[in-house]
Amino acid sequence: MDGLTSEESADWSAEVNTTAGITTSTSHANLFSQQGSPVTGLTFFLGTIYALIILVSFVGNLMVVVVILSTHKLKTTTNYLLMALAVADLTVTVLVLPFALVYDISGTWPFGSTFCRFWMSWDVTACTASLQHLCAVAVDRYFAINDPLHYYERMSSRKVIVIVAVIWLNSSCISFLPIFLDWYSDNSESTNVMNGQCFLDINKPYAVISASISFYIPLAIMGGCYYKIFSIAMKQAKEIYRMQKSLQHNNPDDTQSLTSKSNNLASERKAIRTLGIIFGMFYLCWQPFFIIYWIYAFSPHPDIPNWVRSSITWLGYINSAMNPAIYALNPDFRAAYKKIAWMLIKKCPGGSALKDRQNSLYGAPYEQRNSSPVTIPDMEASNELPRDRPSPHTMRNYSSIGVTDIARITYVNGHHPSKSSLHTSPLVQTVSNMP
Q1: H-only helix segments in 251-330
Q2: Quick one: pLDDT band at residue 251, thresholds 50, 70, 90?
Q3: How far apart are CA 410 and CA 379, in angstroms?
Q4: Which DSSP state fits 175?
Q5: What is the pLDDT of residue 147?
Q6: Where are the domains of the chain?
Q7: In the chain, what's the furthest Cα-to-Cα distance?
Q8: What is the tens place of the pLDDT at every residue in 85-134?
Q9: CB atoms < 10 A from the CB of 21, how many?
């Protein structure tokens, strides 16, 4: 740190700034350069990337909320949990990221001492809530695939509301209370805006507790849930394989079983790949940040460039922008996205002419061609069940339920499932509607 005295250097190293939902021992002063170093190109490049992250996160998560609230068939308990995740990510996007962008680019905190506390508290709260909602989604998927008979007893709409409330309460308890009551530090005057910096000087107990609640405990729960899902899927795949061999032995000329086997293996690989992306994105986005966090919490003067610390912090923020793509882009969501986008296009100048041109080229109206209504086969009108609560008889006779849209069932009111449905493992059914 050229140009600083040893005393100033020690003070600079002790500054701890909250970003990505947990405190990190870093200063945002001159984030991309030491004073006088002309690296405006790097500043502009990273600033542009950060602004795009904010835009993508805001639009993506807002669309998730809008399509769930405006589309009747998407109003399920599981999708409400996904909407709560989107709200948490929207909170990160609106209340945290714009101020982090200004702070990182300018290298100074211009919003005052009181707002510094609020900003850091919301940073911890919102990012922790986002991570814990990811954990709740993993638990929801595990319940649906492991014990579908009792799924609605465990994950009713009322219980989803309780889960969301507990997540936000828990997230607030490790942020607002410690920051405003100075429990996080051994120095009662550690939270301040000094020399244009909004910083915290945390103690090691708070570092361990906050990191565990925000990341490591959710990571362990998610890992356990997805491991169990994989185990169930592999067991089901073996049963399917034995069933297919038996069908082929009894009817050697039946090529349908061979085709079904091939299709099932392809679907199995896609399902495993999808769950791998879910868990992998969570881990890859946040683990680098928490490595830096531990380094700063237990090392007095680590020598890590400012732009590296900032980039790793924003890598965690990227997870909020990626969640809509990972969890919501199934066929039903895509159809709802297209419908809303087309409505907006029609309201723009020239939108009606574009609609007429699309209809003349493709025949059917564009909205109808891109709609994909969910239908439940073999269900008589007189015996129709509420969408969000299949009967226990249905649940007993169905091997598993798709989590993203749990009402997509093929065994209803005593009708036997088709042969193709017997060749679909619970893992494939769980994530078959995901991209």
Answers
A1: 256-298, 306-328
A2: low
A3: 10
A4: T
A5: 86
A6: 6-227+281-329, 339-431
A7: 85
A8: 999 999 999 999 999 999 988 888 999 888 988 998 999 999 999 999 99
A9: 32
For tokens 């709560």, name the residue: 84
Coil, strand, or helix at residue 264?
Answer: helix
Q: How many angstroms separate the CA atoms of 270 and 275, rounded?
A: 9
CA neighbor of 109 nearest in space, from 180, 193, 179: 193
Q: Which two tokens stand for residue 228?
A: 């169990």
At residue 198, the 3 state secondary structure works out as strand
Pick from 6-20, 273-287, 379-393 the range whose average pLDDT is largest: 273-287
Q: What's the whole-number mean pLDDT along residues 182-199?
A: 68
> Residue 392 in 3-state DSSP?
helix
For 357, list phi and psi in degrees, rounded to 5.
Answer: -65, -40
Position 268: which residue type?
Answer: E
CA–CA dist 411, 419 (Å, integer) = 12
Q: Is 84 left (phi over 0), alpha (psi -120 to 50) or beta?
A: alpha
Rounded CA gap, 312 and 316, in Å? 7
Q: Quick one: pLDDT at residue 397?
A: 40
Nearest-angstrom CA–CA distance, 195 and 197: 6
Please name which of 432, 35, 72 lies closest in space to residue 272, comparing C-alpha atoms: 432
Rounded CA gap, 75 and 247, in Å?
Answer: 39
Packing angle of the helix pair 256-298, 217-250 (nearest 10 deg): 170
- CB-CB contact of 232 with 45 (8 Å): no
Residues 394-401, mean pLDDT to the nearest whole number: 39
Angstrom distance (rounded) from CA 335 to CA 371: 5
Give the homologous superfamily in CATH for domain 6-227+281-329.
Rhodopsin 7-helix transmembrane proteins (1.20.1070.10)
pLDDT for the residue 365: 52
Confidence of residue 388 (pLDDT cuts 50, 70, 90): very low
Measure the CA–CA gap between 175 and 172, rounded to whole angstroms: 5
Asked if 197 and 180 count as a contact pair (C-beta separation under 8 A), the reply is no
Length of the chain: 435
Distance CA(306)–CA(324), nearest Å, equals 30
| pTM of full prediction above 0.70 | yes
Per-residue pLDDT tens over the stretch 137-155 = 999 989 988 888 888 888 8
Q: Which two tokens stand for residue 330?
A: 């199934």
Least confident of 132-146, 201-215, 229-243, 365-379: 365-379
Which residues make Cβ contacts (< 8 Å) with residue 188, sequence separation at least 6? 182
In the Cβ-directed half-sphere of 187, how many Cα atoms lie within 13 Å? 11
